[in-house]
Design brief:
Number of helices: 10
Pfam families: Hydrolase_6, Hydrolase_like
Protein name: phosphoglycolate phosphatase
Strand order of the largest sheet: 9-8-5-17-18-19
Structural class: alpha/beta
Number of strands: 19
Catalytic activity: 2-phosphoglycolate + H2O = glycolate + phosphate
Strand content: 15-25%
Mean pLDDT: 77
Shape: elongated
Function: Photorespiratory enzyme that dephosphorylates the 2-phosphoglycolate produced by the RuBisCO oxygenation reaction.
Number of domains: 2
Oligomer: single chain
Family: Belongs to the HAD-like hydrolase superfamily. CbbY/CbbZ/Gph/YieH family.
Largest sheet: 6 strands, mixed
Low-confidence stretches: 1-74, 333-348
Order of helices and strands: EEEHEHEEEHEHEHEHEEHEEEHEHEHEE
Length: about 350
């Protein structure tokens, strides 16, 4: 049985919640329940485990927002699998944490492939290109085709293509190599990225910072080389270049750089530029529906035949619900024989 759950009281999370679901300690029993309406119809919830003690405040805040739900039981996991044509998996926190593969992932993927399911891997982490992610899957011992991988770095380039972004315009990147590589593959000119990581601004009387007037878009993603120079350069482009776009790969509050703890995510970089420009970004990663619409069109499937598997309510699950998909919330860190053994199941 792929899903193993038992009945117990629980709660129904709100779609507006920004609570992370990546609890770090096991609980004695899963929780089940159903209630509420979402896009696409009724939702039922099967919770795999209660949050760790240090997650208590976050859990109570979600419960307060949504209210307790009556107990119910998810009886037939096979029926859920049979109803889905495509499973979309988040990567960080679901397939791996940092550079460590989560136990049970290979067996789960093999099982789903043996049942003829299409597997797609979607990540908000923009530091790598699709090709680079393909190598990471290979390093972890997973056989995944590059065409099955959709990173937010690719989404940024795909979005610019979808709006016929002028090829004579440039893209300023606050982010890492993954965005640069995807922009190059799409034929877009770019500047910035890691090479601006060492640049400093010498603030002295009368100093005036120049910027490229041909920049027509600023793309902001997770950036370990983030600095004040990049904030100012991106701000000048957005404020002073007519029609300059402000694009965010994602607004994740935290990310999994290692398997030891959560780290400040791409949302912190986006927030800095938002703060200086007072302009809301166009988000191409989860929970925006851009990638969902792109995938549905590419594979010719309806979203009702898709199940989104993730470890975060505010990105992965909301991404699936916004797109009208079934969703599974994995409580990473509790996986035994299968990455789907202990889960929340939101059946739309």
């Amino acid at each position: 049985m792929l899903l193993q759950v038992r009945a117990s009281p629980t709660f129904l999370p709100s779609t507006s919640s920004s609570t992370s679901s990546s609890a770090q300690a096991p609980a004695p029993s899963p929780f089940l329940g159903k209630s509420g309406q979402r896009r696409g119809g009724p939702v039922s919830l099967a919770a795999a485990a209660s949050p760790a003690p240090h997650r208590g405040v976050a859990r109570r805040s979600v419960m307060a927002a949504a209210g307790a739900a009556p107990a119910a039981k998810l009886e037939d996991a096979d029926a859920l699998i049979d109803s889905v044509e495509t499973f979309i998996f988040d990567c960080d926190g679901v397939i791996w944490k940092g550079d460590k593969l989560i136990d049970g992932v290979p067996e789960t993927l093999d099982l789903l492939r043996s049942k003829g399911k299409r597997l797609v891997f979607v990540t908000n982490n923009s530091t790598k290109s699709r090709k680079q992610y393909g190598k990471k899957f290979e390093t972890l011992g997973l056989s995944v085709d590059e065409e099955e991988i959709f990173a937010s770095s690719f989404a940024a380039a795909a979005y610019l293509q979808s709006i016929d972004f002028p090829k004579d315009k440039k893209v300023y990147v606050i982010g890492e190599e993954g965005i640069l590589k995807e922009l190059e593959l799409a034929g877009f000119q770019h500047l910035g990225g890691p090479t601006d990581g060492d640049k400093k601004i010498e603030l002295k009387p009368g100093f005036y910072m120049e910027h490229d007037k041909d920049v027509g878009a600023v793309v902001v993603g997770f950036d370990r080389y983030f600095n004040y120079y990049k904030v100012q350069y991106g701000t000048l482009c957005i404020r002073e270049n007519p029609g300059c776009l402000f694009i965010a790969t994602n607004r994740d509050a935290v990310t999994h750089l290692t398997d030891a703890q959560e780290w400040a995510g791409g949302g912190s970089m986006v927030g800095a530029v938002l703060g200086s420009t007072k302009q809301e970004p166009l988000v191409v990663g989860k929970p925006s529906t851009f990638m969902m619409d792109y995938l549905a069109k590419k594979f010719g499937i309806t979203t009702s035949q898709i199940c989104m598997v993730g470890d975060r309510l505010d990105t992965d699950i909301l991404f699936g619900q916004n797109g009208g998909c079934k969703t599974l919330l994995v409580l990473s860190g509790f996986i035994n024989s299968s990455v789907l053994t202990l889960i929340y199941a939101l059946l739309i």
